Structures are given as C-alpha cells and as structure tokens.
Amino acid sequence: MAAPNIDTIVSLAKRRGFVFPSSEVYGGLGSAWDYGPLGVELCNNVKQSWWRWIVYDRDDIEGIDSSIILNRLVWKYSGHEATFNDWLIDCRKCKARFRAEKISDNKCTSCGASDWTEARPFNTMLQTKLGAVADDDPTALAYLRPETAQGIFINFLNVQTTMRRKLPFGIAQVGKSFRNEVTPGNFILRTREFEQMEMEYFVSPTAEHSKLVDYWVEQYVEWFGSLGISRENLFLYEVPEDDLAHYSKRTVDIMYRYFPEREKPWEELMGIAWRTDFDLSTHSKNKVDAEGKRINPDSTEDLSYFDEPTKQRFYPHVIEPAVGVNRTVLAVLMDAYSEKTNDKGETRVILKLSPQLAPIKAAILPLAKNKPEIVGMAKAIKRSLQPVLRAVYDDTGGIGKLYARQDEIGTPFCVTVDHQSLEDEAVTVRDRDTWEQERIKVADLAEHLQKRLKPYPVTQPEVV
Ligand code: GAP
Fold first, then answer.
1. Type and span of the H or E element at 384
2. Which residue CA neighbors atom 4 of ligand 1 most closely?
C-alpha cells in the first residue's frame, strides 16, 4: 500500500517533524517549505545515497559543486534568457492567472468563464542584483541558477584536464536551483526553491545516444527501486518531439504516481535527456555557425575535446539524467506509507522507509524510566551505537506509544532495555515492519543492526 494522496503525507510530515510550511508565523509564503529534524535527515540520506551510487560506486563519474550565481552570459548563451519561459494566460472575468498548457477544457477553473487574454511568455529565472548598485543599473542583473547543469558545462575542461579523464565520463552535482514558477503547489512537488541532483555524461558524437538514454533510464529505475519506490508506481514517458527543450533531441521522463486518486495520476519525477553537443559548443569561443560566424564572441575558452585514438577534435555530446531531491523525497514518503491494525483493533501508520533512508536507524527505549540502572544502560547503548549509526534515546511515553511513534517515522529498529537486560546483557530488537522481536547480546548489537541496515544493491552493467 502507498499513501492515498499527497495530503496524507503533508499531514504526517507536519505532525512528525519532516516538513513544515515556511514562514508560518507571518502567514506562510506560498510554495516554500522548511525541512524539520527528520526531513533534513531524510533529504541528506537521499542525497548521500545518490552520491555514493553515482560517484563512488562507479569509476566514470566525478563530482563538483559550482556557484549558484554565475556570470549572466552563461544564461544568455545557454538559451535560458531567451527561452526559459512559461506561457501565461489570464481569465478576463476573474483575473486569475494560469500556465497556458494547464488549461484543458477552455474553462477557467476559478470562475468557469472562457474569456482569455492572449498567451504571453514569462521568464521564470529568478533575478537578483550584485553589489551596491543603483536600482536601474542593468549591468548588476544576475540570476539564481534554474538548473545545476550549466555549472557543470562551464567546468567541463577544468574537470577533464585535472582528473585526466577520457570519454565517456560524467560530472555530477547536487544543489539548489530556483525558478519563479507561475503556479507552484502540491506540497514539495513544485516550489520556487528546490534541489536537483544532476549528472552530465559526456560521450563521443558518434556514440549510440538513444541507447545511452535507455541505459540511464534503466539505471534510475533500479536506483529508485533501491530507495523503496515500487516499479508499478513509475511510468516512462517519451517526450514528444514538439515538447522537447531547445537543447534536446530525445527526453524520457520518469513519472511517479503522485496523484493515485486522480484519473491522471502521473507527474514528472525526473528526466533523462540527450542534450546533444548544444551546451559545450554554445559556451565555446571557436564554434562557428553555417556562415562561419562565431556563435559566442564573449567566450574566452573552447570546450572541445581531442580524441587521441581518432586524432579528432569535437564537442562531446551529453546524456543528462536530472532528478529533483524534493520530488524523490515525496515519492519515497508516499511509497513508504502504510497502515497496520494491531491486536486491539487500532490502526497504526508505518512508514516502511528503506533502511538507508530512515532518518533514525535505531531508537533505544528503556522499559522502566524510573529505574536508574535501566536508564543508564539504555543511554550507554545509544552512545555506543551513535558512531556507527544514527540512534536516539526516548523515554517520553509508555512502550506501546514509543513503538507507534517510531513506526510512524520509519525507524527500522526499536531496542528495548528491560529488567532482564541488567542480568543477561541482552536487549530486545523489534522489527518495524513485522513487529517481530529478537533477543540480542549488547556486545553483538552494532554488528547485528549494521548487517540488517545494508542498502539494497544496484547492478551496474557496462555502459553501452
Ligand atoms: N537540467 C535539466 C533540468 O533542469 P528539468 O526537467 O527542468 O530539467 C529536472 O528539471 C528535475 O528537477 C525535475 O524532473 C524535477 O524533479 C526537479 N524540478 C524541476 N522544477 C522543480 C520545481 N519547481 N520544484 C521541485 N522540483 C523541480
């Protein structure tokens, strides 16, 4: 079972400290969310899992961390200044504003009228000004990046030469991106500030690009599986030619069933695009158009690559898997959501997070909080586990309540210290999903838990 709708997760997330509406004390700020004590752990675990899988487990990918604010010319030549638009349309009757592509039956969802203005472009890059400058000084204009990808392209040569890389190889980056979305909403699905995990995989112009797109689609489906996202809640969408971004020759979106209650349940979780050689050539000083004119008179570098075996110089093509951290977190939470009824007929929420993502791996619970020896032993176990796994101590309720609380936030193991523990140096380990209990010696506890917390493996076939 997965969550029946996003609202179920919004309520759980707020109740249990995963995600709070931002700026609530001033009435909130539409579309902004703050990650609480458990949310920040979950986000970090998603990002760490991705980084381990994409950078450490492979031999062909390097990581970087580029600036959020780049030279404005990056966005001129990447095409974002000219084309990173949403098309806006207003209802003349009630003045409500929509993205033109979202109007399906020509009726305003606010008032029912069908009297529209012409659609007009609205650039969704968020602007800022650099330095102590006059309000109207156009040279001070800068953008908060709308994708992390451009920071990778402009560093292509730096990484390739310093790390002595040969094609094919990739560069990965995780970080914040910003878009002045016209209609943000649906919790953390569409916000103006969000986080991306992007990887640009550089290959020869003669590589089998379409096969490489398929390769990365399969890899990501497997990786999502390792995070506990079930295959049946994913849908592969081949983006039609006339919907492709200006740089793409082929894009496959991996969609998630974010709206199980709707007739159209799918929304984009990520995209895998063949970006051709567009980005590296557009930022290069030597690239010329059909008439032999430099396409970029502002660039001081040439981001081409010399291929030793063929003795040829060219601009590498790029396959780009781009995934949102926040959308991954939402999919993970929705998929992990389940309910279970106990012996007393009470329904409990159990968040079946994959162990590697769970914010807390083990909760150490004393059975009698007024017994100093038991409390002391439980606290000592917590401290001894902490260097190897995230553990908490909790004595703020009866044992039933404590178990229920940990189940609801996805803690895989509860470790109970009781009177007998003082005698036999052993504790009870309770499994979140089965509620089965096992007696384990304190000396073996760390190893026992670590074994059961191992991430699910992802296979890595050779790149095609
Ligand atoms: N570099 C390519 C690129 O940025 P994209 O499809 O526009 O492609 C990639 O974005 C991913 O970033 C999306 O699939 C989604 O997961 C995430 N994303 C994009 N806009 C977002 C927003 N406003 N809020 C949350 N996540 C967003």
1. helix 372-385
2. 147
CA distances from 424 to 363, 369, 393, 441 (A): 20, 19, 21, 8
Ligand 1 near 173 CB (within 6 A) = no
The predicted-structure confidence for 290-344, as pLDDT tens digits, reads as follows: 999 999 999 999 999 999 999 999 999 999 999 999 999 999 999 999 999 888 8
Torsion of CA 339, 341, 346, 351, to 10 degrees: -30
Q: Is the CB of 327 under 6 A from ligand 1?
A: yes
Q: Compute the distance from residue 89 Cα to the ligand 1 centre, in Å.
A: 22
Residues linked to residue 171 through DSSP beta bridges, in sequence order: 62, 200
Strands 362-366 and 391-393, by their bridges, are parallel
Query: Whose CA is closest to 257, among 268, 246, 265?
Result: 265
pTM of the predicted model over 0.90: yes
Ligand 1 pocket: which of 31, 216, 229, 327 to mutate (most atoms <8 Å of CB)?
A: 327
Residue 274 DSSP SS3 = strand
- C-alpha 403/C-alpha 392 separation (Å) is 13
